[in-house]
Amino acid sequence: MIKLQNIQKRYNTKAGFTYVLQQITLDIAEGEFVTLMGPSGAGKTTLLNIIGMLDSDWEGQYTLDDNSVHTLKPRQRLALNKQYVGFVFQNFNLLDSLTVYENLEAPLSYRNVKGAERASIVCDTLDRFGIVGKKDLFPSQLSGGQQQLVGVARAVVASPKLILADEPTGNLHSAQGQEVMELLTKLNQQGTTIIQVTHSEKYAAYSRRIINLKDGWMDGEVTPRQLPRKDR
Amino acid sequence: MMGTLIQDIRFGIRMLAKRPAFTAIVVLVLAVGIGANSALFSVFKTVVLSPLPFPQPKQLMFVNSTIEIPLMDGRPFTEHDDGSGEPVLVVNQAFCRQFFPQENPIGQQVRVFFCGPAFRRIVGVVGNVRARNIDLNQVEYSPMMYEPIDQTCQHSLTTMVRTHGDPTSLTHALQQAVWTLDRDLPISQIQTLTRTLNNTMAIPRFCMILLFLVAVVALGLAMMGLYGVIAYAMGERMHEIGIRMVFGAQANDILRLTLQRAFVLITVGVFTGLVIALALGRVVQDLLYQTKQADPLVFSMGVLFLVGAGLLACYIPARRAARIDPMEALRYE
Q1: Which of A63, A182, A188, B22 sits a CA distance of 20 to 30 A from B212?
Q2: Which residues numbered 237-256 in B keep a CB inside 8 Å of some CB on A?
Q3: Whole-angstrom distance, CA of residue B189 vs CA of residue B125
């Protein structure tokens, strides 16, 4: 599904080029659950943003299904993003002035889904995530865990093939984090490809592949079984 | 489409309620803008749409039989109304209305003090004219009395001459004509009616120009203020725009969304501003010529102009926001 070849991202500074990502070559098949791990500044989020087509300033070759992303213009990449990707953020990024219902409705409204169908999808999603009772509340009226639940619901409401989760448990306590990870696992079991960024080996263990990044380079790949037992 | 519009409007109202200070500033700016606009368009209407800014402009001249003052009743002066004849008067309709509201003024005796106390008989009634000055706001005419030239004891005389062609070319001929009668007669000034009219209107015109300049400055300030607050609001919403782009909003969606919300803001501001402007309009009423304080045409032009200007002020930052890189927008906090 995702094929990255020699992906490179750099910034031009006074001191010369600063590389954030270097020669990233990676294949991710449809239905996989992959974790990107590494210390801060390793380039995990940058790589996630490139895969999500939010970042268009990079070099290399990126193919998403049959689409050569590297040949597309930024606007075309955003259109492809709309078609394929759902995002989950560490800080939830819910729209504060919209209710839970409206937050879920927003992605559909950008996909030309008709009103009645939109309402039906949103209600289904609210039901699926067990947040029907919260539909008229604003994000500020929810706990962190509930906000992330809405964040995940918003990411899946348009039925994306790929979910990109940038430290989805970063702002949650242990029980809430576990709940979100179980939710992501369930979505993956239903066929959605998931790529997450995390610092936690405990949460990385929910995925099937763990790709380590260091200083912008790929630093090996492990499976959850190869992780130290203490964190699992 | 309609559902999205309603959702956007609902969201816009929610945003306004959430930030009352910002809303108050926008409303204030719009109120100033509407005030400036109404003043501006009052002057525009006065100068462009209403060529002569006073009622019944055909009756502008102080005219007698030479200049066609209309005789309404009785008779005009004749050659018999000389120093040896009965002292007579011709009065205007305003005079009759004030002093003889229920009676026929013709033949009535009036005690006047032109050359000491004396009785004069009214022989004619003429139409109302603005003889001494043109008070543009004065709708009522003043009572006027006319006396025959041979019965007057005035020491100065204004003579009106109807000409064909350029009247200024006759200045020398007119002087010669007067001096033919008496070489020692002083001529204080010879000027055209146009010049007389211009002199009369100099102060109102100055007020209008001043008002126009103040209105232009106020409008400019209102526009800058509107642009400033909307650009500021857009900056505050960058993060939200970033989130929307991440979830599928395209440049056109962002442009439409921001313009729709700006329209809600401007509409609320305009209507509130209208109320304030109407209340404040009484202050400038005395300077508005032939334009009522709540003139619909003036207010419509003002509102349309300001809504257009407001949307234009939104369009520039909205367009910039629509083109922003989603990652950059997400970094805004």
Answers
A1: B22
A2: 240, 243-251, 253
A3: 30
